Predict the structure of Membrane protein.
Amino acid sequence: MAILLYRLGRSSFHRRGRVVAVWLLLLALLGGAAAAFSGSTSSEFKMPGTESQRAMTTLRQQFPQAGGATGTIVIASATAQKLTPDQVEPVVSQAAAVPGVLAAVDPFAARSISPDGRYALVQVQFSAKVTDLTDAQREAYENVGQGLEGLRVEPGGEPVAGGAPEVGSSEALGVLVAAVVLVVTFGSLVAAGMTMVNALVGVGAGMAGLFALTGVVELNSAAPTLALMLGLAVGIDYSLFITSRYRQFLAEGMDAREAAGRATGTAGSAVVFAGVTVIIALAGLSVVGIPFLTAMGLAAAATVAVAVAVALTLLPAVLGFAGERVLPRKHRAGQAESSRRAPREAFGFRWGRMVIRLRVPILLAGVLGLGALALPMQDMRLALPDAGTAAEDSPARRAYDLTSEGFGPGFNGRLIAVVTAADKEATTAAAARAAKLITGTEGVLAVAPPQLNASGTAALLAVIPTGGPTDAATEDAVHAIRDKVATITGADVSLTGVTAIGIDISEKLSDALPVYLLLVVGLSVLLLMLVFRSILVPIKAAAGFLLTVGATFGITVAVFQQGHLADLVGVDTPGPLVSFLPILLIGILFGLAMDYQVFLVSRMREDYVHGDTPQQATVNGLGHNARVVTAAALIMIAVFGGFVLMDDPIIKSIGFALAIGVFIDAFVVRMTLVPAVMSLLGRAAWWLPRGLDRALPNLDIEGESLTTAPATAEREHSMA
């Protein structure tokens, strides 16, 4: 692989004008496709095969009028007086006049008035799905009842909860911090700017292609932001790794074209491996069998693939234009003078020797410390986000809080029991029986009278739980209801609604989490065995990854669920973690962890193979790569941390968990625990049974085969 990438790097460097032109043309074409074909994203979560999803499908078939988006407008009296029909009527009329609204139900007719008479709920039914609502429709709905004297009116429900998270200044701050880190690392504005622009081109191409696909593929609203987050982070890091190696070869006296080829063949090999592991882990989310999670994983994986392609082709081409200007000016102008002075030993060498000297206490402190940080993970609860965790000043949150204030939290988590039977008589009897059983269930506040469809073959019952949508008591009530209605014969009774769907998705993801973790850990052991030709190094890497994941989960639970230091990251209301966060975090952190593992340990193996002692090889691996890995980790932390400043609770929690995970894995596990373990293992770290050694293919991540590449390249160049 190293030879192939070496030739690709030299070719891109030599034909730099064509390569840059092709990428700019591709970027323009994808941008045009995005402008022409992009569609809307969805905040809806679907789970095929679950009871709640089957019931939702039945509900939409038997009650077509319920197929569109639904909203709930909360009305509260601004005084201690009860609401009157005359006060409420203007709100109902305005809601009915919103374009696309089929009906707005008078709360006095529907008896949706609070016991004290000061609060009312107006149910609004749209003809179109929430994803098909226009901005004008959403705006008209949000303006219903605004400015009416003596009333507080808060429109809520699906029309105000949809839409993709807005990307703005908070993410730009992360990119700015990354740019500063690049300048400090390289000591050259040219090198820093070139690396950043290269990464932005890759992100632009990946995101444009993704938005072009939204016209034909349904994506969750968080998918583009996740793809942007990952594309930025890995795009900058991959370019950083190759540029750093290019500068190293230039400093050793190589000509620019050869340095570009060597950098692409060595650092580029590690980039390919790291990128492939991220792509496999993200694409592996499809094994869970959840469409929206599969789409998120594939979207992010595609963006990472583009970042790898850009780093291997566009970057060498841009290096051809930059030449030696990627080096600091003093190194370009005074190489002879600087070479006479003894270079100052890098901090990585001193850190490596200290870790080896104190390896036993460092290992104990590291393992015990990360284990302690993982303890809150025992209380981890998963749920889909609801309006109760939205930003306090958002329309959805205001409506949620006002509903809880007037009616109780259960009215925000209403359930729907769908009853189907052969005829009207059987449906009526089964619905009555279901209503009686559900009413006597613990955790249920009220059950509305059954509503039959026109043919009498289906009925629905609105069920109000005592707890909110993400409360543990509501989850228990859902299971208890399902157990009770399963005893009804002659009809099919199933439970659905946004709350029930969220519970089903969370449970399925919880069940899939151990299987996916085992898949990822097994994959890491296999891949690292191929790369390092060792048994113990992959096992050690997998163990370090488990420590990283455990500590990251524990800290995220402590902040987002338990509320410790929640104000520092802008969490208004602690609650369960978003249900797909753990499995998504495992997939992403796996690839990033392998990234740092390869860059650090490959140099250790290279020096060991060339005759260094295991301890010296460990020090060299850390000393030569600590600066680059530190810069790469800081860049990822900055990019992910920028997304913590967003209001969207899903993106905020993902950004926080990834930033914490990268910090722990890079600085605690890979740069501290890994060298400590490697020095303890000594020569045993590189042991591999002879039979297995012969059977495994040689991936040549370190680029050992490049020792003959210069002569080959010269012959090719002279023939050209």
Q: What stands out?
A: The CA atoms of residues 77 and 254 lie 78 Å apart. The first helix runs from residue 2 to 14.
